[in-house]
Amino acid sequence: MPPALPREIVLHRARRSFWRRVWRRIWVGFGYALIVIGLPFTILPGHIGLLSLVAGLVIVLRGSRLARKRFIGLQRRHPRVMFPIRRLLRREPEVFPVAWQQVLRTERFILPKRLRVARKIRRWILNRGRGRAATTPRAPTSTPATSP
After folding, report:
1. Cβ-count burial of 90 within 10 angstroms (0-12 exposed, 13-18 middle, 19+ buried)?
2. How far apart are CA 21 and CA 63, in angstroms?
3. Where on the phi/psi map is residue 144: left (φ > 0), alpha (ψ -120 to 50), or beta?
4. 40, 76 in Cβ contact below 8 A?
5. More confident of the two residues 24 and 143
6. How far apart are alpha carbons 51 and 56 in whole angstroms?
7. With bands split at pLDDT 50, 70 and 90, how would you rate the model's confidence at 46?
8. How would you classify residue 50: left for phi > 0, otherwise alpha for psi between -120 and 50, otherwise beta?
9. Is 106 a residue whose pLDDT tops 60?
10. What is the pLDDT of residues 57-82, one digit of tens each?
11. Where are the domains of the chain?
């Protein structure tokens, strides 16, 4: 059996764990505040609050086991809504593809089909890039020398 630790060490560890729990709760509270601030602005067109929402989610999900369980439950119930958020929570988030997907979803939700332009703009940009590659001058190829 290992020897008993001195009383001072035990008290120091207890104080340290107490302050660690307090700090974690403050940090999780800050994460919830970021979520509350970002949620209304994420729903609006432009998704301005998405960064705040994702930062708050990262903080809360790392610090609270109950929040992780609820987030997993939301993922299972509403996979189409939670998928973009999950993509942004990864270690190397795919920010531009998620933002583009949200632009298309918002456009589809708000505008009638004849007024939607985002897909047309994307196709125009892609075709313009392909057109440049096809029209670039090529280096002359060596031709066999003709004999007289």
Report:
1. exposed
2. 10
3. beta
4. no
5. 24
6. 9
7. low
8. alpha
9. yes
10. 888 988 888 988 998 898 899 988 78
11. 7-113
The string of DSSP codes covering 44-109 is STT-TTHHHHHHHHHHHHHH-HHHHHHHHHHHHH-HHHHHHHHHHHSSS--HHHHHHHHHHHHHHH
The encoded tokens of residue 44 equal 């609006």
Tokens 């918002």, located at residue = 106
> How many whole angstroms separate alpha carbon 124 and alpha carbon 118?
10
* Mean of pLDDT values over 105-117: 80
- The widest CA-to-CA distance across the chain, in whole angstroms, is 106
Q: What's the rounded Cα separation, in Å, for the pair 114 and 56?
A: 37
Q: Which two tokens stand for residue 101?
A: 């997907």
Compute CA distances 69 → 39, 48, 56, 61, whole Å: 20, 27, 16, 9
